[in-house]
Amino acid sequence: MQQFARHAEQRSGTFLGRVAAVFAVIVLGAVITALPRAVYAAAAFQAQAPANSYVQPDRRVGRVINLNQAIRIAQEESGGKVLSAKSVRGPNGSLRHHVRMLVDGQRVTTLVMDQQGRLQRAR
Question: By the 8 A CB rule, do 90 and 39 touch?
Fold first, then answer.
């Protein structure tokens, strides 16, 4: 009778070990298949800006800039002090920003930018 009990104990231990191994393989498979989706979702969530935040415009993308952004770009380009700024719409409907700057404390120059923020000319 003791041999039978010992034999039953050994068989049940291996059975539980097999069940645990199968369960571990199933869980590991689920984690491996879900991991790429989680990484992709995290990257997509991180790339989106919050609804009420200010996103600095990227001049290379081709977005239309306003006069305040043109003034900031002119200050970065020349390092001078802004005297005046105005936006002028051309006959073809394009928008140009004219920014008059005092450079080096003595020279006045006008920077003209198109609506994408590209410097057209400096007079």
Answer: no
Three-state secondary structure call for residue 123:
coil
Per-domain residue ranges for the chain?
Answer: 1-48, 67-122
pLDDT at 30 over 70: yes
88 vs 96: CA distance, rounded Å: 5
The neighbour count for residue 67, using CB atoms within 10 Å, is 15
Q: What is the CATH number of domain 67-122?
A: 3.10.450
Q: What is the pLDDT of residue 7?
A: 56
Higher pLDDT, 109 or 59: 109
Whether residue 67 has pLDDT greater than 70: yes
